[in-house]
Specification:
CATH topology of the largest domain: Rossmann fold
Largest sheet: 8 strands, mixed
Number of strands: 18
CATH class of the largest domain: Alpha Beta
Helix content: 25-40%
């Protein structure tokens, strides 16, 4: 029978992994006892349970899903690795699987960089003893197949790559941030819905979401808001960093509050959902604007086309892309419809000369002759566009937040047609409104990039402003 607590305490199992002892992990052991179905806790453990769950009594029936809102540096990735190994080795799923069926442990990470960190923890556990090493049939960069037929697989958040499997355990690692990573191609709630059927045939299966909380939206917030402090098969466990990582004190962590600010510090270490951040646009509004299958709209005679270029030096791999977009307006029944015609992305490192040439050729096709450039952009753009294509460059009069605000108004009015581009969709979903001191609102991204949506929003904003003036490109640095 699976008992994670006994495995952690056993010198022949997981105990050697905790080289500095188990004292600093004792509150995590309380969590493991709860999800393992322990019928009784000590008075001290019960106090921890009640504080972290808002419940007065231990669960009376098996936990089928658990969502943890934990502060940063609380040990979430280590816990993910322990859960994956314990369930894969001792879950006892063979009796539920069909002949020839392989049961999976899925770890869904925000990106593969985070996934590699967790894979490193899993590999370290499985290398600790001869018995663990003997349990491994095959190890790859993102998976481990065990001799009992169970496979631990680490994936970025994607519906396509997770359908059609039978799972005993699914772990959503940092699920509050799935929507902000370009490697996470799906919203958290969509992924959750797609994965739930994979757990149906395994009776002791478990869905776990672990994350530092963020804004009051998305899967983690909805689960917390619905189930915290309420008995049932869904358990919510919320704890600040210093409650789970006993090597750190609240006083030590408060030194970072002045730099981070109260709201960010409260979320990152206090495990509080932020009230100063809201979503840019609902998913339904974004998806309504996307024209399925339309990746480019060729130029047509009689239309005035407007462009927007978010510039980049293109030197550092993984840095900002240089992007370009074209849009135009058409009149339908007294209403102006704003159509995104084209988006281009040049990921670094790239040749600036080649990028200027490619954008210039597109400008010629769409009859774009004048560029508006952000004041902080790179000087070579103005010179190169003029020298190569005789395109004039002038500064922009709007900042990024103003441009995004214009786009939001039009999308809410259902007057925007966006291209079917997954990276563009991901980036617009990653935008948020930040309320600053004095009530000032800033619209920006949280993680990843917003280069494509910068260009798209700028081109659409120009098309909105005028359909009779000479076309423009705005370049933002």
């Amino acid at each position: 029978m699976l008992d994670i607590v006994k495995a952690i305490q056993d010198e022949k199992a997981l105990r050697p992994y905790f080289k500095d002892g188990l004292d600093s992990w004792k509150n995590w052991l309380v969590f493991f006892k709860v999800i393992s179905g322990y019928a009784k806790l000590s008075s001290q453990e019960m106090a921890v349970f009640q504080e972290c769950t808002g419940l007065k009594k231990l669960p009376q029936k098996p936990i089928k899903e658990c969502f943890l809102c934990c502060g940063r540096r609380s040990g979430k990735s280590t816990i993910t690795a322990i859960l994956a190994v314990c369930y894969a080795l001792w879950g006892g799923w063979e009796k539920y699987a069909s002949p020839g069926e392989s049961v999976k442990v899925f770890i869904i990470a925000t990106n593969m960089t985070q996934g590699k960190i967790i894979k490193g923890y899993i590999d370290a556990i499985l290398e600790m003893s001869n018995s663990f090493r003997a349990a491994v049939k095959r190890a790859l960069s993102d998976s481990v197949e065990l001799v009992n037929g169970v496979e631990i697989i680490i994936k970025p958040a994607s519906v396509r790559s997770t359908r059609g499997f039978t799972c005993g355990l699914v772990i959503l690692e940092e699920c509050a941030f799935f929507r902000f990573e370009e490697e996470s191609t799906i919203r958290d709630k969509e992924l959750y819905t797609a994965l739930k059927p994979s757990l149906k045939t395994i009776k002791n299966s478990l869905m776990i979401g672990l994350s530092t909380p963020f804004a009051r939206q998305g899967l983690l917030w909805e689960k917390y808001n619905t189930h915290f402090g309420k008995p049932g098969s869904t358990l919510i466990w919320t704890a600040p960093t210093w409650r789970l990582n006993l090597t750190l004190t609240k006083e030590e962590l408060e030194e970072e509050k002045e730099v981070m600010g109260e709201a960010e510090w409260g979320a990152e270490y206090g495990a509080n959902f932020r009230e100063d951040i809201s979503s840019y646009l609902p998913t339904s509004i974004i998806d309504r604007a996307i024209v399925d299958g339309q990746t480019v709209v060729p130029p047509e005679d009689g239309n005035y086309y407007f462009g927007f270029c978010d510039s980049s030096e293109g030197l550092r791999k993984g840095g900002d892309s240089m992007t370009f977009a074209v849009a135009h307006a058409e009149q339908y029944d007294q209403e102006k419809i704003l159509i995104l015609d084209l988006v281009m992305e040049f990921q670094p490192p790239f040749s600036p000369e080649q990028v200027i040439t490619d954008i210039g050729e597109v400008c010629k096709r769409y009859n774009i002759e004048r560029i508006v450039q952000d004041r902080h952009s790179i000087a070579w753009i103005a010179a190169d566009f003029w020298n190569c294509f005789e395109i004039q460059v002038t500064p922009s009069d709007k900042n990024k937040s103003q441009i995004y605000e214009l786009l939001a108004v039009e999308m809410n009015k259902n007057t925007v047609e966006l291209l079917d581009n997954q990276r563009l969709r991901s980036q617009i979903m990653g935008l948020h409104r930040f309320v600053r001191s004095g009530g000032m609102v800033k619209i920006d991204h949280i993680r990843g990039h917003d280069d494509l949506i910068n260009s798209a929003a700028g081109a659409i904003g120009l098309a909105l402003a005028s359909e009779t003036e000479r076309p423009e490109i705005i370049v933002l640095g």
